[in-house]
Amino acid sequence: MAEDTRLTAVVALAQGMAAAHGSREAWRAAATGACRALSGSFAALSVWERELGRLRVLVNVGDRAPDEDEFPDAEAYPVHQFPEITEFLHERWAGGGEPNAWVETAEGPAAGRRPGYVHQRVAALRRRGRGCCVVAPIVLNGRAWGELYVARAAGDPLFDRADADFATVLAAVVAAGIAQAERLEEARRLAFTDALTGLANRRAVDVRLDEAVERHKREGVVVSLVVCDLNGLKRVNDTLGHAVGDRLLERFGSVLSLCGAMLPGALAARLGGDEFCLLAVGPAADEVVKAADELCRRAAELELGEGVACGVASTEDPIGPVHSARRLFRLADAAQYRAKAERAAQPVVAGREGPDDPVVRLADAPSGEREAHGERRRFRGRRL
């Protein structure tokens, strides 16, 4: 391949990874770009999981065999099956050697490889109708991260030493792209995460709830929201200090997360201050109420604090049409306010006391009355 053609391929790979949204897209872009750059028929990107002693495949692209999924859930290979992983991705690199790529063929070792290994790769090449492959270690932040693997079909020209050298360059470009993708993922995670508890934050809830209500309007999927206030936080802060108050918030966050696990796919979040919520999309309303009841029980058993006031609103209950996330939030918030006013030990559920349910009427009240309710609620929250 001409030098300018290879330079163009490197640029295309880097641009593809830079344009990716999320890690999966970045992995696919890396494997696809390398496959094209090396005129391969198949490519894979794998990560070395040291703690598990295995090489786990992240993505397969190109002409995949029947047992090769694009994003496999459990395609992994024990390190002992590939002695060169330890040598090339650990020992030689740690000793100052270069993480150079090497070539395997269906007939055995080729360019850049020492003889003497009985390779699982050779058997895999034959089994999947491939004639050769080039394997390039990926080094990230000074440590072996994984490998880039590109193969050609049987009958195609074999990779040579120049291809192996080029694969080494491609692996370096992939490493830079992975580092960038990981930084962006971390930035996104921080933007939607509460720093103290590690739960989702209000921004994450707003985005997910908007999406959920749209699904409800299109598909009729059940959307339920549990809103709760942790009682007694101000007293803990005033008498024991904010460090202890933070510990109470963290412990309640763990309880919320545990109860949220009762609802597949539920989002546990801290809205701010002593306010938390659970957002469930799909589970029946009764299951959500059951989880909320468990939350109240566990919160009452915490060493600090005074339990929790919990309100629930679900599109499966008789609360009227829900056309906006704001309406469902108002219903759950009003139910929570009632639970707090009555010092209820169990969750209050919007719509479960008939058409005269004051929770429903409050949510549907004129804006002035709702705003007055909000002011009372905020004032009460400051007095905890």
Strand order of the largest sheet: 3-2-1-7-6-4-5
- What sort of overall outline do the alpha carbons produce when their principal axes are compared? elongated
Proportion of residues in extended strands: 15-25%
**Structural class based on helices, strands and sheet pairing:** alpha+beta
End-to-end separation: 72 Å
H/E series: HHEEEHEEHEEHHEHHEEHEHEHH
Count the E strands. Answer: 12
For the CA atoms, what is the radius of gyration?
A: 28 Å
For this structure, the quaternary state is single chain
Tell me, rounded to a whole number, the average pLDDT: 83
Task: Summarize the amount of helix as a percent range.
Answer: 40-55%
Give the low-pLDDT segments: 111-118, 365-384
User: How is the main sheet built?
Assistant: 7 strands, antiparallel
Count of helical stretches: 12
Give a brief description.
With 384 residues, the chain is of the alpha+beta class. It has helices at residues 3-18, 23-37, 83-94, 120-127, 161-191, 202-219, 233-240, 242-260, 285-300, 325-341, 358-363, 367-382, and strands at 42-49, 54-62, 76-78, 102-105, 108-109, 130-140, 143-153, 223-230, 267-272, 275-281, 308-314, 348-349.
What does this structure look like?
The longest helix is centred in the middle third of the chain and has 31 residues, at 161-191. It is elongated, with a radius of gyration of 28 Å. The strands form 2 sheets. A 7-stranded antiparallel sheet has the order 3-2-1-7-6-4-5, with helices on both faces. Strands 9-10-8-11-12 form a 5-stranded mixed sheet, sandwiched between helices. The protein contains 12 helices and 12 strands. It has helices spanning 3-18, 23-37, 83-94, 120-127, 161-191, 202-219, 233-240, 242-260, 285-300, 325-341, 358-363, 367-382, and strands spanning 42-49, 54-62, 76-78, 102-105, 108-109, 130-140, 143-153, 223-230, 267-272, 275-281, 308-314, 348-349.
